[in-house]
Amino acid sequence: MGPVILVALTARPNSTARPRPGSADPGRPWWRSEWPGCLLVTAVTLLAYQQAWHAGFIWDDDAHVTRPGLRSLHGLWRIWFEPGATQQYYPALYSAFWIEHRAWGDDASGYHLANVLLHAVSACLLFRVLRQLSVPGALLGAALFAVHPVCAESVAWISEQKNTLSAVFSLLAALAYIAYDRDRRPRGYAIGMVCFALALLSKSVAATLPAALLVVFWWKRGRLSWKGDVLPLAPWLALGAGAGTLTAWMERTHVGASGAAYAMGLADRFLVAGRALWFYLGKLLWPVDLTFVYPRWVIDAGDPLQYLFPAAAVGALAALWMIRNRSRGPLCAALLFAGTLFPALGFINLFPFIYSFVADHFQYMAAAMALSAVAAGAALAAQRLPPAGRSAAGIAAVCLVAALASLTWRQCAMYADTESLWRTTLARNPAAWMARNNLAADLLERGRVDEAIAQVRMAIASEPRNAVAYVTLGDALEEKGRTEDARAQYEKALETEPGNAIAHNNLGSALLQAGRADEAIRHYQSALATKPDFEKAHANLGDAFLRTGRPDEAIAEYGRALEDDPDDAPANANLGTALAQKGRMDEAIVHFQRALEIDPRFAVAQINLGNVLLQGGRTDEAIGHYEKALEVDPHSSAVHNNLGYALLRAGRLDEAIAHFRISLSLDPGNGGARRNLADALSRK
Q: How many domains does the chain fold into?
């Protein structure tokens, strides 16, 4: 959405001979140009977000940062031409992540610094747009946007690079179109259209930009021309509508924004929208108790008091409409703020609504509108003061920016790592069951199983319909060796949410471990019916097929899994095993070697590669791989036996005998080792 203002200014002058506001003036000294303001805005942005520079990955960052299957040139092609290859169809965003991964790999600091710089660029572009539109207080508006703590969620969270990148392209598009509106040169229009398309391909909330431009032109002129104003923006409006429709469809079908949690009537949605508008405005004007997950409101269309929020919003707009002849600025600002927020007001299902109807990152660009308006109003008020009062107002503005920067610096601390994020969220919103469940998952990943179980049980107590929490509890119980209890939790998850792909996958793994392969296969297939690109379910289904003697089907599933994650060492090794069973030894060797490139200490891959090499007569190479397997697991009776057999084939009888004896000492019931030892002794 394009940045704008809120103050009533005079209509645009008819004369084109007068230099436009913000344009280069050969007689103006450099310190009165826009560059010092941009440098100042950039500096305060970098300082305010210093704590985010070295933060880590949190929550769903791994779903946005380029995953292994998309890191090649073919992966870049998939990002653009295969909807569903990424979480949302935002190819400009995921191309940026692709480039960033090439630059700094899995170092989170690079992504954080890129996001901070994009936010600084957005603030500088906002400053330039405000100057082009002759808005008072342009520098203050840009600075407030740069350091306001409401923006911290968008800037300190890597996943929300979609906000900062889309804002850069949106503001560039706005600048280009403003230039086109002034001189009607096709070059400006073309540049603006390209930037607008890139903004939509970064995040479709940019679809509100052409409507915002129309509001701005109405504010400047007092009227709109069909031919001069509306018609040129009609293609932009159509492009934005198409992008918004695609995103809404992706949210429902790929992200999961569907089901009972999203079943709201039209009246409910108006109640959400009315309350959300005032909530967002309140957080901008008084930014306290900002958190990652806000309490989810109970919406009741039968409660008359809840209609006060939308009624107050409609009343405010009506009052601003009535004073439009005296000042169009306030109405313009209100329309820009509400219009930019429209995609997140509840009329379109967004996945986070399952946790809360509001989030700080939803109002990133809307904040630019409102803060520009506040700055413009303050600047106009300051102009009416005597010189001493104007000096005091300047000092107050500096203090306000410093105070907001300090709040942002503190707010960034919660994004340092996943545990900080969830514990801070719970401190500010103890009922946030999503945060408690994610904290449990993080603790489980760190091996703190008992703490994880305690947290996830509290999450379930807060929200018994939380299928994800049952899955997490099942995973924790699996870690404790309580397989039957784990299966029961996965089944509860599926009772709550029958289409939960992760629950189907994990239940399948528990059943496969219990020897119930046919049931496991059915659950893996159910997981893939819901989520066809679920790489782990493809790999697990391959394991089940391999275990039940169906190598052809196993090969197909492993191949699909490796398309999405070529660096999955177990999938490569198991594909090698399936290929070996089909007699495709050369291909099997390639995949065993790939597994060992990824994980040199993968003992099973060393053993199986040794077996294939030995079968192919490459005895010395096989011996080397068995020896490497023993470095990882020196107490494996099977590996000692295999190494002994390879040594026997190589004529190294004494060494072979020694390994057969070690094998039997580790497992006296190993009949193969006993026969091989007898053979070696008879030869000797």
A: 2
